[in-house]
Specification:
Radius of gyration: 19 Å
Distance between the termini: 29 Å
Strand content: 5-15%
CATH class of one domain: Alpha Beta
Strand order of the largest sheet: 1-2-3-4-5-6-7
Structural class: alpha/beta
Order of helices and strands: HEHEEHEHEHEHHHEHHHH
Number of helices: 12
CATH superfamily of one domain: 2-enoyl-CoA Hydratase, Chain A, domain 1
Number of strands: 7
Largest sheet: 7 strands, mixed
């Protein structure tokens, strides 16, 4: 078993894609780095914190990206976002079988806020364009930095979100919420609360991710292969029916969590008999429980 959580972006690529198949676009040798960081005398990375390219998975032609959480928490700036957009557009041009996004990001870089915000909006549009072209987009979330901010929103534009329990997904990170609303609203130092609220188990129960796997690269790869096949069978395009179903799911979530302040209270409302036991369940036992107690989702 190899932990997905503990790997860097470049180590995850050979673990998920077919060995030796990844062809990187704009590698570090191209020296394409953020001009904004250099102007601020901030450290730069010659791949700007994201690896993009073409590869194969079980022989299928796929395009992929892996964000490096070790560089600025995987935060998105102008160049970082442009690499993601360029990869997605090229996937459409070459009619790839799928796009895999190995996401690990705290959101937009404060150093390049406006450029980063624009970049994230372009990433979301490019993801939906890929889906409209019939190309499945699958997001993998299992890194230690989680997937927050603009990339948290972008992840939900994918056909399928695959998470581990250790992965985290939300629009605002714990520190951001605490800074804006106070520690009484959300204590970012309470790690158990943070994972109960943003971790993979809660996100699966609430319908934000479609697949939960153990923290294992083999499990992530197998889930990605299944997701690509499932999406290709049912169609990658975003339809009006999909949007209406999503809206109905969100309305049910609001109803069941009304007046509740803690995920375990939500789990109890979902009918989970012993909410306190959920964090201790392994992936298989949790999935068996969740089959009976889940809001749902696409």
């Amino acid at each position: 078993m190899s932990s997905y959580l503990e790997l860097t972006a470049r180590q995850r690529i050979p673990a998920i894609f077919d060995p030796g198949s990844f062809e990187e676009f704009l590698p570090p040798s191209a020296r394409v780095a953020s001009p904004h960081l250099a102007q601020l005398d901030a450290p730069v990375s010659f791949d700007d914190g994201v690896v993009v390219g073409r590869a194969r998975i079980q022989g299928r032609l796929v395009f992929g990206a892996a964000q490096e959480g070790g560089f600025m928490g995987g935060a998105v700036g102008e160049v970082h976002g442009a690499k993601l957009v360029g990869m997605l557009r090229r996937a459409v041009e070459e009619q790839a079988d799928a796009v895999l996004l190995l996401l690990e990001s705290g959101g937009v870089r404060l150093h390049e806020a406006n450029a980063g915000l624009i970049a994230v909006s372009e990433v979301m549009r490019a993801m939906l364009d890929a889906r409209e072209a019939g190309i499945p987009v699958v997001a993998l979330v299992g890194g230690s930095n989680g997937c927050f901010g603009g990339m948290g929103i972008s992840a939900r534009c994918a056909n399928t979100v695959i998470m581990s329990e250790e992965g985290r997904l939300a629009m605002s990170g714990p520190e951001v919420i605490e800074t804006a609303a106070g520690v009484e609203e959300f204590d970012s130092r309470d790690r158990a609360l943070v994972w109960r609220t943003t971790g993979g188990k809660h996100r699966y129960l609430m319908g934000d991710c479609q697949v939960l796997v153990p923290d294992d690269t083999t499990a992530f790869r197998a889930a990605a292969i299944r997701a690509i096949e499932d999406v290709r069978n049912r169609g990658a395009q975003l339809t009006l029916e999909d949007l209406l179903a999503e809206q109905d799911m969100l309305a049910r979530r609001i109803d069941l969590s009304e007046g509740l302040s803690e995920p375990m209270e939500v789990w109890r409302t979902l009918g989970v008999p012993d909410p306190a036991s959920v964090p201790m369940l392994d992936a298989d036992a949790f999935m068996e429980l969740a089959a009976q107690h889940r809001v749902g989702g696409r």
